[in-house]
Amino acid sequence: MDSGISITAEKLIDITAKKASHIALKEDEITKTVGYSSKQIAETAVDRVAFWLSNEENHLLYCKLCNKGPFTKRGLFLHLTRIHRQEIKLMLEDEIKKEIKAII
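Above: the chain sequence. Below: its structure as tokens.
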């Protein structure tokens, strides 16, 4: 069970970083990544984690994990995926587990 959650979380890191960076996601991007049956869980996890990754002040983006910035959208995406990849994965795993427990 945990390895499946870990794999799913790994697949969702870039999508979460995009969302946190205010980069538009393609409509079916999450569905293509995790499949239709896991779409709702994945969307909820991505939204919750993305909320904790960045904040916007005067149209400038800052990383909430290390308080660095300001970044452009692309710059924040690269920062999150390169520097905080493991942290984002752990946060996603926690959220996915919470979502699964809520269903069961």
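The mean pLDDT is 95.
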